[in-house]
Amino acid sequence: MISTMTRYQMLQTNPVLTKTLTQNDAMVKRDTEYYLANISKVKSVDEFVKDYRLFTYAMKAYGLEDMAYAKAFMKKVLSEGTTSSTSMANKLVDPRYKEFAKAFDFAAKGDKATSEASATTEAVSKYYQQTLEAKEGEQNEGVRLALYFKRKASSVTSTMGLLADKRLLTFMQTAFNIPKEASKASIDLQVRNLEKHINIKDLQDPKKVDKLIQRFSALWDMNNTTLEQVAPVLTLFSDPTEAGISVDLMMSITKLRRGGF
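RE: above sequence
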């Protein structure tokens, strides 16, 4: 079984090839061709949400696929835009809604909104990445979370930004061995707890982000992989070193559980 970090590094080593393989998938190619051929024809929010293929493609591109059913809610988000501080997108804690409202800015650009790069070429590029992450998640959710964190880390500017994003929060909980039950605590307590583990400014440093991904990957595999999956031969030997897993490696992973970032 390939470890989370090994698979993640394989994908990062040749991103061009990875992207090519994703966009050449028959279903992805078909949906993308339809999207590019029709998105600029959409002139209103109503037309947008009524075209199921276009709307779900766009929602997936911006990480909102699981909310594609909430058409009335998304119509409000799009119709109010992001200019007013009281608009729906600005009041929501999850930044994905604001990003989506800016990408398809019907409120400010009217019928020209779907001709912008954010609604065409950028949306397609994001769709490819989302598809890649989803596909990897089918085999190993840890790889999906690592890819997602790498992509989103630099855009996080506050601890609340981590708490508001379910996948980022799962990543952080895993990396620092924080129980999921901690999410039931008050927001203030959750913020203070996370700030004990990480300085948000560190997310702007690629080297520190990569180090955190290494930490996450090791702990993800420890928490989600059985010994039989890692090395079936362990069932035949009493000494773990005979199975190819050194005591040093096991001790290093144990230290990761206890140590800080």
